[in-house]
C-alpha cells in the first residue's frame, strides 16, 4: 500500500488579520482530491483572504496552511488561479492568445519568443473553453464572459491540479454564468476546484461542498444547505433581500 | 526643409542629429509602449526631471573640479538609474503614497540640479540645453554612447518581452507563475530611466515625457497587441524627430520644441481619427 497522499489543501487553526481586528480566526479546512468547494459569505467576511492564504500571497498570523503537503508558495506551479477580469486594465494591448500564453511563463529562464509547443498548448486551452475562433481577438474587445473564460484558459494551460477562482461570475449575466459552471463541472473531473462567490443560491446545484466564511468557517455538503442557513450566514436584512432575488432568479431557470 | 536637405551632406552636426533621432526612436518606441500600457508615465516624468541633478553635478565637476571624464551624459545615466531605483523600491516595498514620493523625487532632482548649475560658470547656456535639448550639439563621442545605450535597452526590452508583458498586464498572476515580478518591474523602470537619458539629448528634460508617451499612445489607438504598438511607435518617433529637425532648421527654431509640437498635433489627430474610425467600424 502507498502512503495516503497529503490533502490538496490543509488549513490548521489558521488566523489572519490586516492589522485592525482579525479577518479570519480558528479556520480548519481540508480539501481532498477532486473536491469542488464553493466559498461563500458576506463582503469583508474573509473569502478572498482565504483564497490568498491558499496561494501563499498572504501569510497566516497563526496556524498552518499547506497545499499538496507543502508551503503554498512552493507548489504554485501546480495551482491555477483565476482572478476577476475587472481587476485588469481594460485598455491593455494584448490578444486572448497573448493572455493565455502568460500562463506558461515562470518555468526557468525563457528568453525570446514562445516555442511551438507552448503556442499549441495555449491554443488547446482556448479550444477547451470554446474560444479558439477568438484567438487573435483583442482582450479589450471581448465581453465580460469571454474575458473570464480567457482567464480560465490562462490558468488551465499549465495543467494545474488545483483551480482557484475569485468571483468568476460576478460581472456576467445568468446565461453565461450557467455556461461557466458547466465548464467547471467538466474540469472538476481532472482537478480540484475552489471558487469564491457571493451567489450561493445559484451555485449550490453544481458544487460538492460549501464553505461559509464570516470570520469563522463552517463547511457543509451542498445537500445540507437550507434557507435558514443562508440567512444565518448573510445575517442582515439587506442580504435577505438579495437572497430573495437569487431565489427569484433560480425560479426563472426552472 | 529644403535648406535642411541641402545642408545635410555638408554638416556633420546635422548628420549626427539625424542619426541620434533615428537611433533613439527604437528605444523610445519599445520602452514608451511598456510605459504607456503599464500607466507609469508619471514615473517616467519623475525620472526625467531627476536627470538634471546628474547633468548639473557632472557639469560642475567638469568645470569647477576639473574631472574631465565626468561627462553630463554619464551624470544623467547615474541620476536616472538612481531615481528609477528609488521610485521602484518605494512603490514595491513602502506603504507611502506613491504619487507623493514621485513628486518629491521629481522636485528634489530639479532643485539639486539647479544648485549645481547655478554654481557652475556660464550656467545659463547649459541649463537651457539640458531643459530643452540640443540635438544639434551631439558630438561623435556622445553618438557612440547613445548607440551603445540604445542597443542595450532594445536588447533587454525585446529579450524579456514575454515576461515584461505578463508583469505589466497582471503582476499578481505573473508572481504566482513563479516570475520574479518585482525584478522585472525594476528592470522596466531602469530601462525607462536609460531611455529617458537618450531622449534628453534629443528634446531635453522638460519635453521627454511627451516623446516617450505620445507615439505609443497614438499607436495604441490603432493596434491592440503590444508588439504592434511598439513597431508603430518606433516608426512614428523616427518620423517625428526627423521632421522636427528638418522643419526647425530653416527658420532656426528649437528642434526639440518643434518635434514635440508635431507629436502633439499627431496625437490629437490620431485620437480624433481613432474615435471616428471605431464608431464607424463597430456600428
3D architecture notes:
The complex is a heterodimer of chains A (254) and B (283). Chain A has 254 residues and is α/β, with parallel strands linked by helices. Chain A has a single domain (9-253), classed as 3-Layer(aba) Sandwich (Rossmann fold). In chain A, 33% of the residues lie in helices and 22% in strands. Chain A contains eight helices and nine strands. In chain A, the strands form two sheets. Chain A has a six-stranded mixed sheet, with helices on both faces. A three-stranded antiparallel sheet of chain A has the order 2-1-4, with helices on one face. In chain A, helix 3 packs across helix 4. The termini of chain A are far apart. By secondary structure, chain B is an all-alpha fold. Chain B has a single domain, classed as ABC transporter involved in vitamin B12 uptake, BtuC (Orthogonal Bundle). Chain B has helices at residues 2-7, 12-37, 41-65, 72-93, 98-118, 123-132, 140-159, 161-169, 171-176, 181-203, 208-222, 226-249, 255-281. The model of chain B has no long low-confidence stretch (mean pLDDT 92). Chains A and B meet through helix 2 of A and helix 8, helix 9 and helix 12 of B.
Count the E strands of chain B: 0
**Biggest sheet statistics of chain B:** none
Q: What's the main sheet of chain A like?
A: 6 strands, mixed
**Would you identify the regions of chain B where 5 or more consecutive residues have pLDDT less than 50?**
none
Task: Give the topology string of chain B: H per helix, E per strand.
Answer: HHHHHHHHHHHHH
Mean pLDDT over the full residue set of chain A: 84
Quickly give the structural class of chain A. Answer: alpha/beta
- Relevant CATH superfamily of chain A: P-loop containing nucleotide triphosphate hydrolases
* Series of secondary-structure elements of chain A, N-terminal to C-terminal: EEEHEEHHHEHEHEEHH
Whole-angstrom Rg of chain B: 19 Å
DSSP helical segment count of chain B: 13
- Overall geometry of chain A comes to globular
How does the overall form of chain B come out from the CA principal axes? Answer: globular
Please give the radius of gyration of chain A in angstroms: 19 Å
> Roughly how many Å apart are the termini of chain A?
47 Å
Amino acid at each position: 500500500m502507498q502512503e495516503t497522499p497529503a490533502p490538496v489543501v490543509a488549513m490548521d487553526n489558521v488566523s489572519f488579520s490586516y492589522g485592525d481586528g482579525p479577518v479570519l480566526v480558528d479556520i480548519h479546512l481540508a480539501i481532498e482530491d477532486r473536491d469542488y468547494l464553493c466559498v461563500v459569505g458576506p463582503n469583508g467576511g474573509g473569502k478572498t483572504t482565504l483564497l490568498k492564504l491558499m496561494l501563499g500571497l498572504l501569510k497566516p498570523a497563526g496556524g498552518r496552511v499547506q497545499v499538496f503537503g507543502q508551503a503554498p508558495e512552493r507548489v504554485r506551479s501546480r495551482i491555477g488561479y483565476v482572478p476577476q477580469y475587472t481587476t485588469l486594465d481594460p485598455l491593455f494591448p494584448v490578444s486572448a492568445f497573448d493572455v493565455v500564453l502568460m500562463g506558461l511563463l515562470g518555468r526557468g529562464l525563457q528568453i525570446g519568443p514562445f516555442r511551438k509547443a507552448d503556442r499549441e498548448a495555449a491554443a488547446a486551452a482556448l479550444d477547451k473553453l470554446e474560444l479558439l475562433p477568438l484567438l487573435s481577438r483583442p482582450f479589450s474587445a471581448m465581453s465580460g464572459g469571454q474575458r473570464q473564460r480567457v482567464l480560465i484558459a490562462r490558468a488551465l494551460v499549465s495543467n494545474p491540479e488545483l483551480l482557484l477562482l475569485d468571483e468568476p461570475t460576478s460581472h456576467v449575466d445568468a446565461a453565461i454564468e450557467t455556461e461557466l459552471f458547466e465548464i467547471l463541472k467538466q474540469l472538476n473531473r481532472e482537478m480540484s476546484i475552489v471558487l469564491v462567490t457571493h451567489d450561493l443560491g445559484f451555485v449550490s446545484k453544481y458544487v460538492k461542498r460549501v464553505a461559509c466564511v464570516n470570520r469563522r468557517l463552517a463547511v457543509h455538503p451542498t445537500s445540507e444547505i437550507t434557507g435558514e442557513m443562508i440567512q444565518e450566514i448573510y445575517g442582515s436584512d439587506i442580504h435577505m433581500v438579495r437572497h430573495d432575488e437569487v431565489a427569484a432568479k433560480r425560479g426563472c431557470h426552472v | 526643409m529644403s535648406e535642411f536637405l541641402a545642408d545635410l551632406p555638408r554638416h556633420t552636426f546635422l548628420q549626427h542629429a539625424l542619426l541620434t533621432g533615428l537611433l533613439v526612436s527604437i528605444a523610445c518606441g519599445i520602452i514608451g509602449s511598456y510605459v504607456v500600457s503599464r500607466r507609469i508615465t508619471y514615473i517616467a516624468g519623475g525620472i526625467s526631471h531627476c536627470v538634471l541633478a546628474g547633468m548639473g553635478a557632472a557639469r560642475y565637476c567638469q568645470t569647477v573640479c576639473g574631472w574631465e571624464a565626468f561627462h553630463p551624459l554619464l551624470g544623467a545615466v547615474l541620476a536616472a538609474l538612481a531615481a528609477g531605483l528609488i521610485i521602484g523600491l518605494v512603490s514595491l516595498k513602502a506603504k507611502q503614497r506613491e504619487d507623493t514620493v514621485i513628486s518629491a523625487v521629481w522636485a528634489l532632482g530639479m532643485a539639486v540640479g539647479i544648485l549645481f548649475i547655478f554654481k557652475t560658470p556660464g550656467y545659463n547656456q547649459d541649463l537651457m540645453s539640458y531643459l530643452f535639448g540640443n540635438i544639434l550639439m551631439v558630438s561623435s563621442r556622445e553618438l557612440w554612447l547613445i548607440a551603445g545605450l540604445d542597443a542595450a535597452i532594445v536588447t533587454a526590452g525585446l529579450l524579456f518581452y514575454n515576461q515584461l508583458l505578463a508583469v505589466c498586464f497582471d503582476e499578481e498572476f505573473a508572481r504566482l507563475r513563479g516570475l520574479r515580478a518585482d525584478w522585472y518591474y525594476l528592470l522596466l523602470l531602469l530601462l525607462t530611466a536609460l531611455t529617458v537619458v537618450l531622449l534628453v539629448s534629443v528634446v531635453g528634460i522638460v519635453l521627454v515625457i511627451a516623446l516617450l508617451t505620445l507615439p505609443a499612445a497614438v499607436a495604441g489607438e490603432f493596434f491592440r497587441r503590444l508588439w504592434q504598438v511598439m513597431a508603430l511607435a518606433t516608426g512614428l518617433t523616427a518620423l517625428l524627430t526627423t521632421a522636427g529637425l528638418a522643419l526647425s532648421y530653416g527658420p532656426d527654431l528649437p528642434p526639440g520644441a518643434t518635434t514635440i509640437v508635431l507629436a502633439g498635433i499627431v496625437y490629437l489627430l490620431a485620437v480624433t481619427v481613432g474615435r471616428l474610425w471605431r464608431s464607424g467600424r463597430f456600428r
